[in-house]
């Protein structure tokens, strides 16, 4: 009877080893991706903050120009009356 279970047990042992090896590879990939994310996240957030700041400066500049146009137009209109 024991001889009949040998190949079955061997296959189970082989499957267990493959599962263990795959789980090790999966864990390594997960930790590698996690480390990469933690290393690049500050750089990316700084780049986003810089772009938002630049966009804000452009908005302020355009609003300033529009304000000057409005003020100069109202002064011209005030002088006509």
Layout of SSEs?
Blueprint: H1 2-80
Task: Please tell me about this protein's structure.
The relative contact order is 0.04. With 81 residues, the chain is mostly helical. The protein is rod-shaped and about 110 Å long.
Provide a concise account of the structure shown:
Helices cover 98% and strands 0% of the residues. It is built from 1 helix and no strands. The model has no long low-confidence stretch (mean pLDDT 88).
Q: What brief labels describe this structure?
A:
single chain, 81 residues, mainly alpha
Order of helices and strands: H
Structural class by secondary-structure content:
mainly alpha
Using only CA atoms, what is the Rg?
A: 34 Å
Low-confidence blocks of residues = none
What does the overall shape look like? Answer: rod-shaped
As a percent range, the share of helical residues equals: over 70%
Tell me what portion of residues adopts beta-strand conformation: under 5%
Largest sheet: none
Terminal CA distance: 116 Å
Number-wise, the strands total 0
Mean of residue pLDDT values:
88
Helical stretch tally: 1
């Amino acid at each position: 009877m024991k001889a009949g279970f040998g190949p079955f047990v061997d296959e189970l042992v082989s499957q267990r080893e493959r599962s263990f090896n795959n789980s090790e590879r999966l864990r390594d990939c997960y930790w590698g991706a996690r480390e990469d994310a933690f290393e690049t996240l500050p750089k990316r957030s700084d780049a986003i903050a810089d772009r938002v700041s630049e966009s804000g400066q452009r908005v302020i500049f355009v609003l300033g120009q529009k304000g000057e146009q409005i003020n100069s137009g109202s002064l011209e209109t005030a002088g006509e009356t």
